[in-house]
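Researcher: Let's do a round of design. I'm pasting the structure tokens now; please hold your answer until I've finished.
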């Protein structure tokens, strides 16, 4: 890489060449496991309410019929995130920086997608903390049935997560969380086998897109649920599963720490990638790292989502039980009780660490989700990430507390924000990356036709679904 100073004193990159490949990238795919990185973070942080609440909820309502929505969503979001990671690895700039060059008002696309993300911060913090508050009230019995119990537990969890986010001493909790989450995945898989789901209906539900009718019992037992359009339930699931732009902007920022390809470049100067055949070949070889990272993380999310939805269809649907704002988690405890009653304790611990891990990790992700756009939109300013973290933690945490104490609950919040940030925002990301790829990338580095078509489909579907539901509100 050659860097020269221009007359104004800023750095201008005249040519970029990729660093040598590490041995893992030059070897087999199994060797790539050794360089696996931020995908573990995104898998851990996004396996939360979408998988443990909304997946079994949809399975409880519609049986196996909407499994295809979960599969489609995970594929679409995996494509979405890979396009962003791909751009960073190949060019050294965060996608949000490329979005600032759209024609029209200055940085309007970067502003639009960033605002969709930032507006959602306190709402997701409120939804997550309310979920864990409901869980702790059920586990301990303290505050159960009172008006103050749930928001008080939730407040304690927000304060704890905010404190840990500021002092950065979460390592031990993160390790315990990872172990228990891994154990829970294994046990949930065993539970699926034990309950003997309808495998024919499972396969049909995964591969054949269709909208099943609402069961008659829903109208009598859950009248409020019966009044919700099926499109809203579908969009809420799509938005909650795997996270949204509020997570993914930060995830791509995390990749800088790995220094894959040109991702370690931080100066934000204009870039020009060498198009020499040897450089192009090396640059594309670097893409194996984000490919594995995205494949692993979204496969984990997809497996968890489908397992919970299958259990909801096999266990809760026949009993006409649907997780809702008044009871988010106790019904799902039957999943591990199907193996052994004492495993309900493992379920409680696993869900607690999983959701608390999401709550804590959200503050760090949101910090990077704010930091990267600030650098891109105002490149001449110096931004201190610790100061950005302070303001993000205060805004997200205090905003979440305000929503909690005004009576907002998890399902209600997610029904509003999931289609907005988790579907519409993701669709806009895909459409923006198509423009960037076609107008800013040298021909040698553009997406393959398969990736381009997948990105177009993901962008159109998610923008249409998210836009339709958002306009209904």
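Researcher: That's everything. Go ahead.
Model: Designed sequence:
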């Amino acid at each position: 890489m050659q860097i020269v100073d221009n007359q104004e004193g800023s750095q201008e990159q005249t040519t970029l060449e990729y660093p040598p490949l590490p041995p893992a990238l030059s070897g087999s795919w199994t060797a790539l496991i050794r360089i696996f990185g931020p995908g573990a973070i995104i898998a851990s942080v996004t396996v939360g309410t979408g998988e443990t609440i909304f997946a079994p909820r949809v399975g409880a309502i519609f049986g196996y019929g909407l499994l295809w929505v979960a599969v489609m969503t995970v594929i679409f979001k995996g494509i979405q995130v890979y396009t962003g990671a791909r751009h960073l690895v190949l060019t050294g700039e965060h996608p949000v920086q490329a979005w600032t060059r759209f024609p029209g008002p200055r940085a309007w696309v970067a502003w639009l997608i960033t605002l969709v993300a930032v507006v959602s911060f306190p709402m997701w913090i409120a939804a997550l903390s309310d979920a864990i508050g409901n869980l702790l009230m059920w586990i301990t019995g303290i505050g159960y049935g009172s008006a103050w119990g749930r928001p008080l537990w939730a407040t304690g969890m927000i304060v704890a997560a905010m404190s840990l986010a500021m002092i950065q001493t979460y390592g031990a909790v993160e390790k315990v969380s990872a172990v228990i989450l891994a154990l829970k995945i294994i046990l949930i898989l065993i539970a699926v086998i034990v309950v003997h789901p309808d495998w024919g209906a499972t396969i049909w539900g995964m591969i054949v897109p269709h909208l099943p009718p609402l069961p008659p019992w829903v109208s009598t037992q859950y009248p409020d649920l019966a009044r919700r359009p099926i499109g809203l339930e579908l969009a809420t699931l799509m938005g909650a599963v795997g996270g949204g732009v509020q997570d993914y902007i930060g995830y791509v920022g995390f990749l800088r720490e790995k220094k894959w390809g040109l991702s370690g470049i931080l100066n934000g100067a204009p870039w020009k990638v060498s198009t020499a055949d040897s450089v192009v070949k090396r640059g594309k070889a670097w893409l194996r790292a984000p490919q594995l990272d995205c494949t692993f993380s979204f496969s984990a999310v997809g497996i968890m989502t489908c397992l919970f939805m299958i259990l909801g269809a096999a266990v809760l649907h026949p009993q006409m039980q649907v997780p809702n704002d008044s009871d988010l988690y106790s019904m799902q405890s039957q999943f591990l009780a199907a193996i052994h009653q004492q495993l309900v304790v493992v379920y409680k611990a696993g869900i607690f660490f999983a959701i608390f891990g999401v709550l804590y990790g959200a503050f760090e992700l949101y910090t990077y989700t704010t930091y990267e756009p600030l650098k891109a939109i105002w490149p001449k300013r110096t931004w201190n990430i610790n100061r950005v973290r302070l303001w993000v933690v205060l805004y997200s945490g205090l905003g979440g507390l305000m929503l909690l104490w005004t009576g907002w609950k998890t399902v209600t919040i997610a029904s509003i924000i999931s289609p907005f940030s988790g579907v519409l925002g993701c669709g806009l990301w895909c459409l923006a990356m198509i423009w960037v790829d076609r107008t800013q990338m040298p021909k040698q580095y553009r997406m393959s036709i398969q990736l381009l078509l997948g990105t177009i489909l993901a962008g159109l579907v998610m923008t249409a679904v998210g836009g339709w539901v958002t306009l209904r509100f």
